[in-house]
Amino acid sequence: MSRYVLTFFTPPPSLAVIKRALFATGAGQYPNYAECCFVTPGTGSFRPTQGAHPTIGTVGAVEQVDELRVEVVCKGDVIKAAVAALKESHPYEEVAYYVTKLEDF
Questions:
Q1: CA–CA dist 22, 43 (Å, integer)
Q2: What CATH topology corresponds to 3-41+67-102?
Q3: Full-prediction pTM beyond 0.85?
Q4: Which domain of life is it from (predicted)?
């Protein structure tokens, strides 16, 4: 079965809610382990443009905010539901995420 890594960025206070939503889809599963993820702190930088409704910041102004980079492994039958759960539970208007397919060796 195919496996993927879902990587996303979130403000720290939102992490617990997002993890619950992701893990409810079956994301973060390994043999004999559940609810697995890796979290790294960092700084996000962005400038909301005209038409944006930012959760943090002001249209036209560059913002730098503390964020967490989170990586979660997902099986192929779970990845679409995990992305949908991420988008539903995340506080940002535009969720920064990407999906990487893993190769089996």
A1: 23
A2: Alpha-Beta Plaits (3.30.70)
A3: yes
A4: Eukaryota
